[in-house]
Amino acid sequence: MTSAPTALVTGVTGQDGIYLARRLLADGLRVVGVARPGSASGPRVAAYLPGVEVREVDITDGAALRALVADVAPQEVYNLAALSSVGRSWEEPELTRRVNLDTLVDLVEAAHALTAAGRPVRLFQASSAEVVGQAADSPYARAKADAERVVEKARAQGLHASYARLYVHESPIRPPGFVFRKITRGAAAIALGRSDELTLGTLDVRRDWGHAAEYVDAFVRMLRRDEPVDLPLGTGIDHSLADLVEVAFAAAGVEDPWSRIVQDPDLVRPADSKVLRADPEPAAEAIGWRATTSFADLVARMVEVDLERVRSGVEDDPRYL
Fold first, then answer.
1. pLDDT tens digit string along 276-317?
2. Which residue of 37, 92, 153, 314 has the smallest Cβ count within 10 Å?
3. What EC number(s) would the UniProt record show (predicted)?
C-alpha cells in the first residue's frame, strides 16, 4: 500500500498554517506542522488542527530544523513561519532576520539534501507585499526581500521553489493583536456593552484585505504547478482603516462609531506603507486563482465570530473557521 505524500508546514498554529494544514489533510496528505516549543498542547491546536502531527521545534535552531526535514522527508514544504510585525522588526531586527530569512536558508539546504538523495521536494515561501511598499527599508521587509533571493537561487540550482508576495489577508482566527481583529473585536465588545471605546492609531492607511482561507488554495496551486512561479496574491481592491471601522461597527449594530473611537498618537507608526494593493491578474493567469470573498462579507463574518467569543468566553472553536 502506497503511503500518502507528506507536507511540512512551518507556522502551523498561525492563521495561514491552520487553513493550509486543513486543506492539505482534505487532499489526503500526511501533514506535519512545526510549532513553537510549548505550544502543541495549546487550545488552537486542539480546536483547529486535529489530524495534524504537530512537532515542537525552535525554528531558529538550524540544526534541529534540518534534522526535522530529514526525518519527515516531505514532498511539499510550506514556509509560513514569520515575525510579521513591521513595527516589532525595528525593535528586534536580529531575531526578525533569523526567523524570516535564516529559517528559509535552513529549509532550502534540507530540501536540496533530500532532492539529491532521490526524494524530490517542492518548496513554497510566504513573502510579503511590504517588500515593495513604503516600509521596504524595515528589517521585516529587508528579510523578506532577501528570502525571495534565496528562493530564486534555489530554483536556479534545480529546486522547485516559489514565493508569493502576500497582501493582507484576515480571518476569524487571526490573533487579536492585528488591527483588523482589534477592530472587529472592539466593535463586538462595544455592541455587547463590555466596552465603551476603542483606541486606535492612524486611520488613513489603505490595505488590500482578503480572506486567508482562499489564499492557502493559491499556495497549493503554486507549489503543485509544473513550473514554479512567483506571484502577488491579493484582491486588487483596497480599503482604509476608517472604512473598516464603519463596516465593522455597522455589522455589530453600533451606530455612530466615531463617538466610540479614541485616537492615540503613540500608536501611529510612520514606517507603515500608506497604500498596499495587489495586481490580481498574474495569479489569475498563472494558476487560475482569484479572491472571491468581499471586504464586507469578510468583516461581517469576523464580527459575527467575535460577538460569539465575547458572549461565550470561548476563544477557539472549530465553528469559528
1. 999 999 999 999 999 999 999 999 999 999 999 999 999 999
2. 37
3. 4.2.1.47
Look-up: residue for cell 506535519?
Answer: 32
Among 76, 130, 170, 214, the active-site one is: 130
For this structure, is 128 an active site residue?
yes
Domain annotation for the chain: domains and CATH numbers: 6-166 (3.40.50.720), 179-207+237-278+292-320 (3.90.25.10)
Residue 162 forms beta bridges with which residues?
A: 124
152 is catalytic: no
50: nearest Cα among 69, 72, 28, 25: 25
Burial classification of residue 91, based on how many CB atoms lie within 10 Å of its CB (0-12 exposed, 13-18 middle, 19 or more buried): exposed
Q: Which three cell numbers stand for residue 87?
A: 513595527
Query: Considering 78, 140, 167, 320, which one is annotated as catalytic?
Result: 140
- The continuous run of DSSP H or E covering 55 comes out as strand 53-56
List all residues 6 or more positions away from 135 whose beta carbon is below 8 Å from its beta carbon: 86, 141, 271, 272, 273
Grid coordinates given for 98: 533569523
Torsion, CA 168, CA 171, CA 175, CA 178, rounded to 10: 30
**pTM for the complete prediction?**
0.96
For cell 510549532, the residue is 35
Counts of helices then strands in the chain (DSSP H, E)? 12, 14
